[in-house]
Specification:
extended; 0% strand; mainly alpha; 78 residues; 3 helices
Length: 78
């Protein structure tokens, strides 16, 4: 007898990240215009949360590159 292993369903955050990736990967999209409308048309909290997403993405990308080079990211903290 064997058991089929099903992969875990993507989390809500993973689904949102995939949607953002799909939207931004459209090369016909004018990103500067999107930024303009994001800054002018949406509530301030939405703009701040979008910045938080970008900062988290940059941090995690930097950490991943640092680990890939063989370093430990937090070694200079103590």
């Amino acid at each position: 007898m064997y058991r089929l292993r099903r992969s875990e369903a993507p989390t809500k955050e993973e689904k949102v990240a995939q949607r953002i990736s799909t939207i931004v990967s459209d090369f016909s999209l004018d990103l500067e215009a999107v930024g303009y409308y994001l800054a002018k048309s949406v509530p301030h909290i939405t703009f701040v949360r979008a910045l938080e997403i970008l900062e988290a993405a940059r941090y995690n990308k930097d950490v991943a590159e640092y680990y890939k080079q063989g370093g430990y990211y937090d070694e200079g903290l103590f």
